[in-house]
Amino acid sequence: MFEAAELGRKVPKEEYEKAVPELRAELLEAQFRLRNTKTPVIIVIGGVEGAGKGETVNRLSEWLDPRGLETHAFGPPSEEERDRPPYWRFWRTLPARGRIGIFFGSWYTDPIVKRVFGKLTASELDQELARIAFFEQMLVDDGALILKFWFHLAKDAQRKRLSKLEKDKATSWRVTPRDWKFFKMYDKFARVSERAIRRTDAGDAPWILVEAGDSRYRELLVGRALLEALRQRIENGQGKPAASPAARPVTMPPAAAEAAVSILDRVDLSQALSDDEYDKRLAKAQERLGRLSREAHDEKVSSVVVFEGWDAAGKGGNIRRVTAAMDARHYQVIPIAAPTDEERAHHYLWRFWRHIPRAGLVTIFDRSWYGRVLVERVEGFAREDEWRRAFLEINDFEQQLVDHGVVVTKFWIHIGGEEQLARFKEREGTAYKRHKITDEDWRNREKWDPYVAAINDMVARTSSTQAPWVIVAGNDKRFARVQVVETLVKRLQKAL
Amino acid sequence: MFEAAELGRKVPKEEYEKAVPELRAELLEAQFRLRNTKTPVIIVIGGVEGAGKGETVNRLSEWLDPRGLETHAFGPPSEEERDRPPYWRFWRTLPARGRIGIFFGSWYTDPIVKRVFGKLTASELDQELARIAFFEQMLVDDGALILKFWFHLAKDAQRKRLSKLEKDKATSWRVTPRDWKFFKMYDKFARVSERAIRRTDAGDAPWILVEAGDSRYRELLVGRALLEALRQRIENGQGKPAASPAARPVTMPPAAAEAAVSILDRVDLSQALSDDEYDKRLAKAQERLGRLSREAHDEKVSSVVVFEGWDAAGKGGNIRRVTAAMDARHYQVIPIAAPTDEERAHHYLWRFWRHIPRAGLVTIFDRSWYGRVLVERVEGFAREDEWRRAFLEINDFEQQLVDHGVVVTKFWIHIGGEEQLARFKEREGTAYKRHKITDEDWRNREKWDPYVAAINDMVARTSSTQAPWVIVAGNDKRFARVQVVETLVKRLQKAL
């Protein structure tokens, strides 16, 4: 998940300075018009220390009209607060309709910290997360607009940031021993936070992952996300809770042009293997995969492997390199095309549940449930509330697989636009490949940018340590195949 | 909760035989028209052994067209099923759109049984219940109609029923050693089931509590509830999921006239105390309450006491008898009238959260959050989806109090209609009492029957061992006051 917030996004100073005056004016206007909608706005700020949460909150306060705004920070509970149930402190600070409340620290802080320091069991954490989900749902049902920002810094960036703050006399007071104590637990924090985000990323109270390295980028992102959400609400709903789901979701804002970096842009597509190296490494990896898959079979460890990717990215070829290594009795390849009548008559996840492998077996999905948040989203086959809800549904589905011990691995086979064009043309020019290229492929190609946005969102919301997305550099087919087979070897080694 | 299903409701044979042909015809027609709505219907059957679940399912199968119906019973999982995540068996049996699936045993069975036999911790149970709530919500979002019936028998009735089945040669095979083993855990089962029901009683996947002692009553109840729900769906929604909440909820069906017994009908309103007895018992109870409330203060055990009741039932007089026993620094009485502007600008629960007592103190609410499911429901001040959702919200709210160690007790002061009339007239005739009677009181009186239905529903859905509703027999004021004070004594004794 966090890999989608480690892309080095930045906004140049001139662009920032050009953008801010307009953004401020628009925010003020939206804030003013918000009153008529009787919507309470709840902004949750979470994330790692040193990621500029405080600065961003200060900036927002500067941009907005302070008369309609309240900021609440939560330290250790006061005696007053300890005397009551934990949520009392949050209830008493909820903003009234028409007002904006910024929660700097929130109902997420305590469960995450307690879990990291072992004061909650895994199932107690999940219980707390379920309570949070219920609480937010209740507020949304009552008409609240909830925006949740998670500020992320890579481990190294956090260390540098804390050291820098500490060295500067003007800011050294801001770094406490607690910050370093927490930093030592960085990996644990990342795992627990990831789980918390994954299980509370509801369609109508979504998390927005903020890459926090650059102050100008994060401020513009947060400001624009807020503006976008306010505008949607003003357009759609006056007064009463939005009964229509279309009125609810929050759209990710367009970032500044220079910051519009997606996770795919960080893939080095020039990576390639020579014939020799390819033969050697593929053979070795396949031999290992064969051995491990037999072992997994004996030990009843199942696998689910998902292949998604651009048209002509070479999913088929990759899948064949995987299956070639395995005993044919041990795997099944499920190609996902348009649903059958029977499948259409059920929930969209039903057709995938059908193919969950028995203990020790492998199911390879050639396209998958991610169609909901890719093609169905981009083409409008699913309503916005449907695909937004799907992230939480998919995470829950995969969680059930993982809880049952299934090894889940998801590949996105990436190729560049030019490479795709070349392959399309080659297919059209080759008699026996011509059937592989259709008008639809050409149409999809025109939607490259919306697909990139959808893919980036998908990885941010559904990649996890337990069910990771692996972005495969596919311009060189040999490189891709070796990367796929070697990744599966690693995943099985870890599980066995 | 279960007290609402121990009222001895029955349907006479003639009435049953008169009702069935029409009900069957209507069910068949509704089932036929259901197809066009593309709605999958999921009927969950749960409850105690020997409560006639099987017979009722058989009857439903007889009444409905078998071509659009499927029944699934779940025993111990097969090897096939054990090889996959636990929900796989449910996913594979979900009905297609336009079809009805009866789940005889369901996703509830395993968590409840495991918790009763100590194989799940309390928080693991809650985790499972949260998963269930998510699963059902996902199906509802996809357009499913979910009806959940809980078949209840009082402990004694269950014993008799099992013995009777066992003695009869024709049915003795139906009683297994497992049934008796479960029977021994009756109280534990009741507690765990109550929790499961309370935490999954969503507005759009509600539980319907079935008093199971009389086969004719339970069959008509289930049949009519199903008919009502199908009709609502056919009227409101074609095809796509009901985005409008109004399309979702299921109304409790009117039961046969002779079976229309509410929990209030079982209150013996003739109970009374002589002056002497009243003085003695009240003084003794007040003395104890005084002592216990001081002890609670010292030990930091808080209480929340709710008073609801008919107009002129004497809430004020009861509250005064309680407060008279306590140190004025230890309690606060919060009269709930129309919300202030500030309160109206928040979630309806906000005004109650404000008054949660500090550790060791008592808050007495003269009317309460139950207004949402009483006056707001009956008068239409809250939309149907709002008050239906409120049961789950209220249960969660009280759960947080209970989890924090707060002693929660809820009184409904009951009086008969004639007694109310007499009191109204007396008030009108007495100068200093005249301000206590308004046109609104007279108007409310005309809605007696809808109020009775709302009260019965409220008790069924929100009374629990940890936060019980106590129905007070209020025709005799002396009897009521003693009942109230003595109940609070018992509640505190238990908590300290």
Describe the structure.
- Two copies of one chain form a homodimer.
- With 496 residues, chain A is of the alpha/beta class.
- Chain A has two domains: 2-261, Rossmann fold; 265-495, P-loop containing nucleotide triphosphate hydrolases (Rossmann fold, 3-Layer(aba) Sandwich).
- The first copy, chain A, is 50% helix and 12% strand.
- Chain A has 20 helices and ten strands.
- In chain A, the strands form two sheets. In chain A, strands 2-3-1-4-5 form a five-stranded parallel sheet, with helices on both faces. The first copy, chain A, has a five-stranded parallel sheet with strand order 7-8-6-9-10, with helices on both faces.
- In chain A, helix 12 (315-323) crosses helix 20.
- Chain A starts with 12 loop residues before the first helix and ends with a helix.
- The model of chain A is unreliable at 239-254 (pLDDT under 50).
- The interface between A and B is large, with 60 and 60 residues.
Brief descriptors of the model:
homodimer; 496 residues; alpha/beta; Rossmann fold; 2 domains; five-stranded parallel beta sheet; 20 helices; 10 strands; 12% strand
Give the SSE map.
2 copies of one chain form a homodimer.
Chain A: H1 13-37, E1 41-47, H2 53-63, E2 69-73, H3 79-82, H4 88-91, E3 100-104, H5 109-116, H6 122-141, E4 145-152, H7 155-167, H8 177-184, H9 186-198, E5 207-211, H10 215-236, H11 275-298, E6 303-309, H12 315-323, E7 331-335, H13 341-344, H14 350-353, E8 362-366, H15 375-378, H16 384-403, E9 407-414, H17 417-429, H18 439-446, H19 448-462, E10 469-473, H20 477-495
Parallel strand pairs in A: 1-3, 1-4, 2-3, 4-5, 6-8, 6-9, 7-8, 9-10
Helix pairs in contact in A: 1-10, 2-10, 5-9, 11-20, 12-20
